[in-house]
Amino acid sequence: MMKYSMDKSVALDVLAIAAHPDDSEITCGGLLIKTVRMGRKVGVLDLAAGEMGTYGDRHTRAAEAASAAKIMGLVFRANAGMPDAAIEHTQESKLRIAQVIRDTRPELVVLPHWTQRHPDHLACSQLGYDACFLAGLAKLPIHGEPHRPRKIIYASYYRNTDYSFLVDISDVFEQKLRAIAAYESQFGDASWVDEIVKKGVARGGIAETGRKEVFAPGTHIFDLLYSRSRTLGHMVGVQFAEAYTIKENILIDDPQKMPVRSI
């Protein structure tokens, strides 16, 4: 298992588990950065190195993931070393993830939503949930004391619409973009972020130099993130937002203090 950055004594508040480097930045980077700003300890576990992608290689993407971790303020980032485009829902993989959960002891785990186009993302969602359960079994054949996260949430990846709640990421949207821009092999020259910021994160403020269109049908990452985050933000009266789903109900003490207006 490769460790890009890690405080060996860390006990995490939040652990995001994703199939590939840059998945967490794109889907839940705003929440992770926001949580870091709250003073909590946040980490990311990437399952594969992304070596099967059209651009870059495992070494380039590892360096980019380490850079993105610094931008987000993560105290832990590791790679489980699973084969890209061949992540499988096996007991061995579950135990590998469960070991990280025991080592880092997060209270909150963020997984990709189970409605997915890429098989690796689907496998990651299933593996992550199973590993969270298994990590709490005292007789599991791995090291460390049993630990089971208290909460699991699922980050939207553009296909699902069954949102349980949205998170306002307006104040951290620029930092999220800078973390994604660390993946220059995937998205081109990072100067596009400076161009966007100069124009006040305005629609159409993409630098033309060095851009790479990787999302079908030839969509630049900023086009995707801006339109998606802005639309979600409109739904709850903020500039930019991310969407999350949970599998249990939400308990509210005082409905009168719920922040979003009905009319």
What does this structure look like?
The protein has helices spanning 23-37, 58-72, 91-104, 119-134, 173-181, 184-187, 191-198, 221-236, and strands at residues 2-6, 14-18, 42-48, 76-82, 108-112, 151-155, 165-168, 213-215, 219-220, 241-245. The model is unreliable at 203-210 (pLDDT under 50). An eight-stranded mixed β-sheet has the order 1-4-3-2-5-6-10-7, sandwiched between helices. Helix 2 packs antiparallel against helix 5 and helix 3 packs across helix 4. It has 263 residues and is of the alpha/beta class. It has two domains: 2-168, Rossmann fold (3-Layer(aba) Sandwich); 170-239. The longest helix has 16 residues, at 119-134.
- What is the CATH superfamily label of the largest domain? LmbE-like
Mean pLDDT: 89
Proportion of residues in extended strands: 15-25%
Q: Can you write the helix and strand succession as a string?
A: EEHEHEHEHEEHHHEEHE
Number of helices: 8
Structural class label: alpha/beta
Shape: globular
| Spans where pLDDT lies below 50 across 5 or more residues | 203-210
Number of strands: 10
Strand order of the largest sheet: 1-4-3-2-5-6-10-7
The name CATH uses for the topology of the largest domain is Rossmann fold
Query: Helicity range of the residues?
Result: 25-40%
Radius of gyration: 18 Å
CATH class of the largest domain: Alpha Beta
Give the distance, in angstroms, between the N- and C-terminal Cα atoms. 51 Å
Biggest sheet statistics: 8 strands, mixed
